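Anyone? Bumping this.
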Amino acid sequence: MDFKNVKEYLGWLYYQYLLITSIYVLEPWEQSIFNSVLFSILAMVVYTSYMVVPVHVHLALEVFSGICGEQPESTMALMN
Amino acid sequence: CCCFRLTRLFQGQESFEQAPMYVAVMTYLGFGLVTLFGYFRDFLRAVGLEKCHIAKERDEQKDFVPLYQDFENFYTRNLYMRVRDNWNRPICSLPGPVFDVMERVSPDYNWTFRLTGKTIPNVINMGSYNYLGFAENNVDFLKTVAERVQQYGLGVCSTRQEMGNLGIHQELEELVAEFLGVESAMVLGMGFATNSTNIPALVGKGCLILSDELNHTSLILGARLSGATIRVFKHNNMQSLERVLRDAVCSGQPHTHRPWKKIMIMVEGIYSMEGSVVCLPDIVALKKKYKAYLYLDEAHSIGAVGPTGRGVTELFGLDPSDVDVLMGTFTKSFGAAGGYIAGKKELVDYLRSHSHSAVYASAMSPPVTEQILRAMRCIMGLDGTTIGQTRVHRLAENTRYFRSRLQEMGFIIYGNDDSPVIPLLLYMPGKVVAFSRAMLRRKVGVVVVGFPATPITEARARFCLSAAHTKEMLDKVLFDLNEVGDELCLKFSQRKYTSRPKEQHHNNNDLNKDFKQDSL
């Protein structure tokens, strides 16, 4: 299969999505309902991960660096 | 199929490859989503926001037991109706290797259809049961049939037992017995009724029927009507059959433990949904060991397999008298209608007076009888030509070619290498529908089968090859299948096949020339 441009390729990808999820058999307004529900769920997932993931990663890095930082200091203290 | 090594020498390879896991997951997901939307639409219909196009109870009957709430009606209303333009397509020509399909459109998403008046001409027919190409309207070949119409008319207006026993019926029965290599045969007007009305005459209460998992509805109906106990064994699985036989012989009837009056094993020659061939030598060995009877339904295999078209007994090189009851239909390979039951003379004489359709059904129509006579004489070579044998060889060549090319392309195909019935697995309901529509746009008519007839995850397209298909037609179909397979991503197979050797090209070309000469 040769695609003349990106638009045709994207159209084929959308067709594959319709076939695989069997939304292809539904009427157009039902397809719109399903697409909007799926899109809103995905948008919520993306937004939540954008808000939450950097903060958590920062906190996790702090905790790990805190543990690694303390270890050599405490042994030095014991020896002294 | 778990067969002994001896049978592997006689039969081709069978394969039932499993698709990757994501395919099953997406199929279930697809069905789940459409079911959810089905509930949503039912809710809209119940509330009144949407008009109900299908049968429903009247308002006065709302307190009665509901008629349309079970799963089957739900499935029909919400899944089948959406896509039913792929089934029951009206055709307006002979169902030969090519046919004409009438065009129809639907303004309201397949609730109603309107014929536009145009036809789609010369659609390649990959769905009709026309294995030897006898569905033809060539005037020279049908001369004797026309003579019979002039001699006898069309309706027989009686049953065989009263006034309907014509000379050609007896001629046909003798010819069928000679064709199959048995003592005697009986011919009936309808193939489905041959099974469903003769099995009750053979077995009754106190008998045991061992039926294959995937038997046809006519066999199941006949078994249930008979009143015998029915036990099912796994499809073509000899270990399962042996275990069930041993249990049956050891424990006897359910509560009294008396020995069974009769044990009958019911199998088919070719299973049309799977394309698999029965392991006949093993079943015959088991039946002799445990002293059971064998009922073989050769609806799809008579005329279509075997070196001279005599069916699965010839394919495996067995003696036809090893099978107690041979049954078959004339609908598939002979281009007619009706069925036969054959076996020992005492059996057939008994059935003539005790079988429901032999006694009550009206006799076979004379032109149909003559069509079977001419087709059978053609296959046996009794009409002095080699047309029949050429067609049997051509069907075998077409089968081998088509199957090997489909496997090379990467589709998942079920069944035995010798069977002219080829299921191509599609799995997802969206793809099933898109496949059928895409192939019709390319002027190839295919039959797709979905949930009630197949397991829910294994929807398929079923190709029935014919001796009348030329190599050009098959190549065109294969080319379209390749393109549609790429477009819809249907090539699920994970096996690697080597390309076929060059010498097959020569064989195909020679037979092509022979067939063209004979059909002039």
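Late reply, but here is one note on the structure posted above: Chain B touches chain A at residues 26, 29-31, 33-34, 37, 40, 79, 82-83, 109, 428-431, 433-434, 483, 486-489 (CB under 8 Å).
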